[in-house]
Amino acid sequence: MVDWEGPLKEAYERATAYLDGLPERRVGPRASSKELHETLGGPLPGGPTDPRDVIARLAEGVEDGLLPSGSGRFFGFVFGGATPASLAADWLTTTWDQNAGLYAASPAAAVIEDITAGWLVELFGLPRSTSVGFVTGAQMANFTGLAAARHEVLRRAGWDVERDGLIGAPPIRVLAGAERHDTIDRALRFLGLGTNCIVPIAVDDQGRMRADALAEALEDDGPQIVCAQSGNVNTGAFDPITEICDLAHAHQAWVHVDGAFGLWAAVSSQLSALVDGIELADSWATDAHKWLNVPYDSGLVLCAHPEAHRAAMSIRAAYLIQDENGERDPLDFNPEFSRRARGIPVYAAIRALGRTGIAEIVDRCHAMAQRFAGILAANDVEVLNDVVLNQVLVRFGDDDTVTRRVVAGVQDEGTCWMSGTTWQGRAAMRISVSNWTTGPADIDRSAETVLAVLRKLS
């Protein structure tokens, strides 16, 4: 008889100990790469090892190399945490081990994705017919949305890119803000369009695309895609989506919105004005592993043109059992074939939180970001951005070296963790508040740490 209880009990005890310790855990890794290699490595095992011992040694081996991104004092990279319901559902997802590519392979996983897709469309206020794909993250969400865009703008030009490829196709111009996220460029490389197709559009001092600059750049002839942004990764700023959509659609251009974290502002009654006009776009990318606080990995692509979405992604093969009764085959909406049932943790998170619970997380993170900025500004730290959402961008002593040393010093100290960046040619500290557990005490303690490191350096 297989012993499931031993290793699973070991994993449960280790997991709960880790989670219970997060509030006071040092926010940062404690071991070097060399130390981790020495602890975890060694020769290839020559024979079996008891599974429970494997789990125990694994947990002990990685302990000092973990970056506790689920902590309420982790402010790097716009990472979220994991809510109890989504984490538990993720464990069950692993246990059930469903291949969620086809309805026939897992009716339950396909139906959960279908239900969850409808909830997401309603939460974001998008057209009811919007299609949804569950992908790994914003990188593949941008890829998939832009694949649908590539299909449609070339179809309008009389070209079938799925059949004929790009050789000889009409060139596509991609108009994107100068402060776009790098996943846009990478997606265009993956799609065979290359980065030379990008026409950079001027932005304002917060990184918002200037509608007047877009109007000057749009052309009347040839396929065009406009990439807008809801939530600049440094400042949190939002492009003027209504103006962008009106201008782009007047030129038959497709509008794709990168809203990796910013799209969730739509759920908040306090912040929804930031995404005014979002429903006018053609496709959207966002993450559930950011503000919905679902375990990694969990990205979402949404498309107002399901036929273009399906045309860019779907596949047919004689051996596949694809449903003929209208049931949703997930592989029609994402670039993967075999895939994890990512919709299950998203379903659980939404079911547990509801609209008001999600809005509360977004609103609280916004308030905490403003609190962090306020404390630092009151102590003569330069805040470089308007804190419209969850991003705080600060600079110390108007000096690149000092700023980078403060970032490194805070990371080394371990009370909190935030990353550095470069904004408009100047070094800055980027503080991203997106964890569902972050509260005033976390902010106050972290802000005092930043100021203490700065005083020590001064």
TrEMBL record:
**Which stretches are tagged as biased composition: Basic and acidic residues?**
23-38
Molecular function GO terms recorded:
aromatic-L-amino-acid decarboxylase activity; pyridoxal phosphate binding; transaminase activity
TM ranges are none
Q: Which domain of life is it from?
A: Bacteria
Gene Ontology biological process? carboxylic acid metabolic process
Q: Which cofactor does it need?
A: pyridoxal 5'-phosphate
Q: Using the UniProt annotation, give all residue ranges assigned to the region (Disordered).
A: 23-50
Q: Modified residue N6-(pyridoxal phosphate)lysine is at which positions?
A: K290
Q: Which InterPro entries match?
A: Aromatic_deC, PyrdxlP-dep_de-COase, PyrdxlP-dep_Trfase, PyrdxlP-dep_Trfase_major, PyrdxlP-dep_Trfase_small
Q: Does the keyword Lyase apply?
A: yes
Q: Which Pfam families match?
A: Pyridoxal_deC
**Which UniProt keywords are given for this protein, alphabetically ordered?**
Aminotransferase, Decarboxylase, Lyase, Pyridoxal phosphate, Transferase
What's this protein's family per the entry? Answer: Belongs to the group II decarboxylase family.
Query: What protein does this entry describe?
Result: Aspartate aminotransferase family protein
Q: What is the lineage of its organism?
A: Bacteria, Bacillati, Actinomycetota, Actinomycetes, Propionibacteriales
